Amino acid sequence: MAGGSNPPSPGRKAAIAGAVTTGAALAAGALTSVGAATYFARRVLTPDRQRPDDTQILAVADDSVTLGVNPETVSPGRYGLWLDGERGHARLGEVLELDQGSGRVRRELLGVDFGHLAGGFGRWNQYYFCSPPDRSLGLRTEYVDVLTELGTMPAWVVPAATPSHRWAILVHGRGARRHEGLRAVKPLHDSGINVIIPSYRNDLGARSGPDGRYNLGLSEWRDIEDAGLHAVQRGARELLLVGWSMGGAIVLQTLSRSWLADHVTHVVLDAPVIDWGDVLAHHARANGIPAPIGGLGRALMGRRSARRLVGVHDPVDVAKTNWVARAGELSHPILLIHSVDDEFVPVGPSLALAAARSDLVTMERWDRARHTKEWNVDPGRWERSVAEFVAT
C-alpha cells in the first residue's frame, strides 16, 4: 500500500506487546516506589497529634495495678500512665509480679495525680511527672510566652532559688511534650540554675511551621534560639542546652547555626538523634520497607523539586543532621546519655561520636532502658551525672 508501512509479523507483534507490557510494568513499579517513598517521608515529618490509649489496665488495688504485658509495661523503673484520654494520670513503680503465660504484670502504684484509675485502657509515658513544674515538683513556676518568628510560644520558667546568670533550656523530642523535660529540672534547680522549658513549632498547643511538618531540627532550632534570647534578656550569661531524642538534633543545629552558641557552656543529650540517616534506615528495616525505598524517601525530603510531593516548605537535607560526619565542627562539652537497648534511636552513632570526639564528649552508657527512659530506669544515676557535669 502506497505511503504505508509493512504490517508487523506475528512474532514482532508479540515482541512489541511484550515491550509495551514490560514498559508499563516498569513505569507502574517506579510510580509505586515513589508513592511508597513519599508515604515514608511524610510519616517521618508529620507530627503525631493524638495517640491512642493502648495499655490495658486489668486490675487496680490500693498499692498496685495489673496491666497487660507489652515491652513497655515490663520495663524496669518508674513511669506515668495517662488515663481516660489524658483526663487522669497515675505514677507507677517497679514490677512486683510478672506472669508471661497469662499476659499480666503487676506494678507498684505510687500515686494517682488526678482522674480515676480503673479497668480499661491507658497510655504509657516516660514523663512520670504529668503537670507543670509548680504542680509536679512544687517549684515556683512562671508561665511565659516566648516571642518567635511564628508568633508567641508557651514556655515554663523555673527560677533558681537565688539569683543566677546560668540558664538551662530543655528541648523535648519528636511528638513529645514539654513534660519530657521535667525529669531534668530537680538536678538543675538544685545546682542553682534557672530553667526554661519551651515549646517549638508544630507542638500540640503551639504554633505550626509554614508546612505543619517536622524538619528534623533544621528549622525548629530557631524557636530554641528565641527561648535563649528570652533568657539572655533576663540576664543569662551562661546557657546550658539539654535535649532528648529529636530535641538533641535540635540542640546540635542550634550549636551550629545560632549566635547563642557563644553563650553555651554545657550540652546534655539524652538518647539523641546524632544521625537522622541512621535512624530512618533503622525504621525502614523495622517496618519492612526495602532499603531502596527508604533511601528514596530520604532523598525526596531534600529535593527542592519534591517539596510539594513530600509536603515541606523547605527541603530537609538529612546529610546536615549527621554529626558523626560533622564531629570536627563541635566545640562544646557534651554529656551524652544513651542506652544500648534503645529501640527507637539506635545507640551506634552516639558511640561513634563519643569515640570521634573523646576530648569533648562524656559518654554515659545505659543498659535496659528503652528510648529516652534512662532516667526512669535509674533516676539517681541520671541526676548525679547531670549535676556533676554542670558543676564543672
Task: Describe what this molecule looks like in 3D.
With 392 residues, the chain is an alpha/beta fold. Helices cover 31% and strands 25% of the residues. It folds into two domains: 55-125; 133-275 and 322-390, Alpha/Beta hydrolase fold, catalytic domain (Rossmann fold, 3-Layer(aba) Sandwich). It is built from eleven helices and 14 strands. α1 crosses α7, α4 packs across α5 (246-257) and α6 (276-286) packs antiparallel against α7 (291-302). Mean pLDDT is 90; it is low at 1-8 and 10-31.
Q: Layout of helices and strands, plus pairs?
A:
Layout: H1 10-45, E1 55-60, E2 64-68, E3 79-83, E4 88-99, E5 104-114, E6 120-125, H2 133-136, E7 142-148, E8 151-158, E9 166-171, H3 185-190, E10 194-198, H4 221-233, E11 238-244, H5 246-257, E12 264-270, H6 276-286, H7 291-302, H8 307-310, E13 334-339, H9 348-356, E14 361-366, H10 374-377, H11 379-390
Parallel strand pairs: 9-10, 9-11, 11-12, 12-13, 13-14
Antiparallel strand pairs: 1-2, 1-6, 2-5, 3-4, 3-6, 4-5, 7-8, 8-10
What tags apply to this protein structure?
single chain; 392 residues; Rossmann fold; 8-stranded mixed beta sheet; 6-stranded antiparallel barrel; disordered N terminus
Q: Biggest β-sheet, characterized?
A: 8 strands, mixed
Distance between the termini: 94 Å
Beta-strand residue percentage = 15-25%
CATH topology category name of the largest domain = Rossmann fold
- The CATH architecture of the largest domain would be 3-Layer(aba) Sandwich
For CATH, the homologous superfamily of the largest domain is named as Alpha/Beta hydrolase fold, catalytic domain
> Can you tell me the CATH class of the largest domain?
Alpha Beta
Count of separate structural domains: 2
Shape designation: globular
Number of helical segments with 4 or more residues = 11
Q: For the CA atoms, what is the radius of gyration? A: 25 Å
Structural class computed from helices and strand pairing: alpha/beta
Compressed to H and E, one letter per element, the order equals HEEEEEEHEEEHEHEHEHHHEHEHH
Strand order of the largest sheet: 7-8-10-9-11-12-13-14
What's the pLDDT, averaged over the residues? 90
How much helix is in the residues?
25-40%
Q: How many extended strands? A: 14
